[in-house]
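During the second half of the funding period, the structural biology subgroup turned its attention to how the target accommodates small molecules. The most pressing case was pyridoxal-5'-phosphate, which had performed well in the primary screen but for which no bound structure existed. We therefore specified the complex as follows and requested a full 3D prediction, including the ligand pose.
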Amino acid sequence: MLDRQSAAYSLTHRDFRDDEFWRDIPAWKDVSRGDFGSHLWQSKNSIRKLSNVKDVLGDRVSDDLIADIEAAFKIAPMNVRITPYVFSLIDWNNPLIDPLRKQFLPVASQMLPDHPYYLADSLYEDVDSPVPMLTHRYPDKVLFLPLTTCPVYCSYCTRSRIIGGSTESIEKDTYGPNPKNWEPAFEYLRQHPEIEDVVISGGDAYNLTPKYIQLIGDTLLDIPHIRRLRYATKGIAILPQKILTDDAWVDALMSVYKRGRKMGKQVVIHTHFSSPREITQWTRDAMDRLYAEGIIVRTQAVLQDGVNNDADIMIRLTKQLSYINVRPYYVYIHDMVPGCEHLRTTVRDGVEVEKRVRGTTAGFSVPTFVCDAPGGGGKRHISSYEYYDEENGISVWRAPEVKPQELFLYFDPIHRLNPDAQARWQNASGRRALVRACVDQVNPDLSDEQRDKISQRLEGIVR
Ligand SMILES: *Cc1c(COP(=O)(O)O)cnc(C)c1O
Ligand code: SF4
């Protein structure tokens, strides 16, 4: 029977928070709407260190929580950087279960040991990279990483190996924008007429100056075979104020967009909302400006445990975003990168959430749920696995037009399996046997050598 009380029928996605919520944070109780609405004030007051957390929250944060955060700083692969906008949207009365706190400010008590088959570069972006800063995996589209800094750092980042600077536990080759270093990528694109589509990611296009937005856009538009550009930024979700107050940046983007339009080429923004809690009246105002200018904004989310692996939340997120003309594009199953085991969910969660989101609103607003196959298979529809051993948390995938000869494996988090299955994962030979059994289900004709190679790749011994 239809449940007309359900999230699908609710109209609350039309409500946009517009109160002065930051005044609940002791250090910001006297900050005016004008200051809070300025992107410069937001950037200057971003939370980067434990001492910032303490200074800003004062007695609203317990010693226990501070100790928990401090312990996470020692082991997490991502640095912390949170805009005051996001920081004050966290429910500081219930920080442990808050979906925004979970995404941007880890606590050690919730972190789990990495999956035995995690890889720092789980998607093989570096393996499929012909020249620095470029990944060319699919026939006609590429991923360009002109910088590796962002206005916020997400615990779930798939590129934690290079994004956001060294942490207490790992060294990274993080880089800022520098046009001299982009030339090999541009030259590769000029030399490859099959490429039509460039994702300008990173890092985050918010951290490109207007001059660099323009330079990258113009250089790519000048390459005759390139037809589509996407500037990737999480900014609209975590710092919508910039769209409203950084005219130079918006103007640079709009000039690339308008030039592209005259040339018959598509220039769009790809952004990144994972929780309806990231959306307020600021978001709506920012989107109203971009929509009036005509540029398309698409969004993607990462499915995270206790954040959004819940159909009601995803339905609300989808409806609220499409209400303000953001087009939901992808929902990713969490990549198998380090430091996020507590945030990963199962392929089953993805299948079930997608099943309920589909049918709740316009088909063109329903995001495609995908698994970006570890080992560089690329994005695959969440229900398109060749085989799924749900008990042991192993799914096997093919990518016929990307890497036709290979099988790809994704693994559900071990803590979500039953105790018997968890025990099977405990030692290396047990794990190999599980993998082998699943691979044999899909292709019983593999040689021993091919089977060994699959395990060696999972173990990071070969690539
Ligand atoms: C995601 C991605 C793209 C773009 O893929 P779409 O499915 O068109 O969004 C291109 N190259 C790489 C390496 C990617 O990971
Ligand atoms: S904004 Fe994107 S690139 Fe930057 S930390 Fe978050 S997920 Fe990673």
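Two results from this model are relevant to the next phase. Residues 8-109 form one domain. The chain has three domains: 8-109, 134-384, 387-463.
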